[in-house]
């Protein structure tokens, strides 16, 4: 079968009111690193073997079958299938220097199942799906609450582990409909995230829909960080990053003022040949490849993000090292801040 993958993101937006400040910006002397731990190649390889080897029978993922027509039933997924999805999420958080102890709860899994059934009932791949005429109002309400506050994914065919694929797609997030926000990725890399829910249902036409409840912020000990870069500082696995993927930096809004796009400049330097990309608001045209830059201040994940992509890279290679520098940010107190970190691409599968 022809494989087609789709992803949508929907987010509650954080509305920020900015007031003029009485002070004048001063300059910081030392570039800021992310404040998160950098992983080593050895650590990444070990976690790849532990977390990125999905083992569940993806052709038979259900403990109880969903019903996408009357009488509607949410069904449930087998624990091993859910575990494969949770493991993938935890791997992406691990390589990003974040806590990687997420778990899927029964209540959130059930909510996600209602959302997946609602999408599959009429093949309505939307964060605001319409109610099928014969669907009970209570079922629709729960499904709508799920679909409108989650990451969504659609896949045609049973050729692979759909739940694991969905996590990869959320983290890629670089198609033209998602490039400007990379919202799926930002929700998964929200430092405050602790609990998720995963659901899946198949439509009568053969489409598979997965739902990830990801708006939780129940972590009691959130790491003290400056920003969350992706790809992360230090070693980073080639297996999960391609040449047309967006780079992103989610800022800790407790430490930075809301950035002005026209004042931000991103410089990316490939260390092997000193090839340099300078990206700013002039590179704001959304396209499948090439130079790109955006500042998104909407409330995806932990908040404001700087999104960029150096164009013209045929592939990232093992041993490639890229230095990233971002200028034009201000701290909460008005001090000019420069961010700087290095990404070293490595092989996770060894």
TrEMBL record:
The keyword Coiled coil does not apply. Keywords: Signal. CDD domains: CAP_bacterial. It comes from the Bacteria. SUPFAM superfamilies: PR-1-like (SSF55797). Residues 1-25 form the signal peptide. Pfam families: CAP. Residues 86-212 form the SCP domain. This is Uncharacterized protein YkwD. It comes from Cohnella phaseoli.
């Amino acid at each position: 079968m022809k494989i087609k993958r789709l992803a949508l993101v929907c987010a509650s937006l954080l509305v920020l009111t900015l007031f003029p400040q009485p002070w004048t910006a001063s300059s910081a002397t030392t570039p800021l690193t992310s404040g998160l731990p950098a992983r080593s190649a050895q650590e990444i390889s070990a976690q790849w073997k532990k977390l990125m080897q999905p083992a569940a029978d993806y052709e038979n993922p259900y403990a109880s079958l969903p019903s996408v027509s009357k009488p509607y039933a949410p069904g449930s997924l087998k624990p091993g299938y859910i575990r494969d999805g949770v493991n993938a999420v935890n791997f992406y958080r691990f390589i990003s220097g974040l806590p990687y102890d997420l778990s899927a709860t029964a209540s959130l899994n059930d909510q996600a199942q209602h959302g997946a059934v609602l999408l599959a009932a009429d093949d309505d791949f939307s964060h605001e799906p319409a109610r099928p005429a014969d669907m009970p109002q209570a079922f629709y309400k729960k499904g709508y609450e799920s679909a409108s506050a989650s990451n969504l994914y659609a896949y045609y065919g049973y050729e692979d582990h759909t739940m694991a694929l969905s996590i990869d797609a959320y983290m890629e997030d670089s198609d033209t409909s998602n490039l400007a926000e990379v919202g799926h990725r930002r929700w998964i890399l929200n430092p405050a995230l602790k609990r998720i829910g995963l659901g899946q249902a198949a439509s009568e036409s053969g489409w598979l829909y997965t739902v990830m409840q990801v708006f939780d912020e129940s972590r009691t000990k959130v790491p003290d960080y400056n920003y969350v870069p992706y790809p992360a500082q230090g070693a980073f696995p080639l297996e999960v990053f391609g040449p047309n993927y967006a780079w992103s930096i989610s800022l800790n809004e407790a430490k930075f003022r809301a950035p002005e796009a026209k004042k931000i400049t991103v410089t990316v330097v490939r260390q092997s040949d000193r090839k340099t990309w300078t990206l700013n608001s002039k590179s704001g045209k959304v396209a499948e490849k090439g130079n790109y830059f955006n500042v998104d201040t909407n409330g995806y994940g932990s908040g404001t993000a700087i999104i960029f992509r150096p164009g013209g890279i045929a592939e990232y290679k093992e041993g490639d090292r890229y230095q990233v520098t971002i200028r034009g940010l201000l701290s909460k107190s008005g001090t000019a801040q420069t961010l700087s970190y290095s990404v070293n691409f490595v092989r996770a599968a060894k």
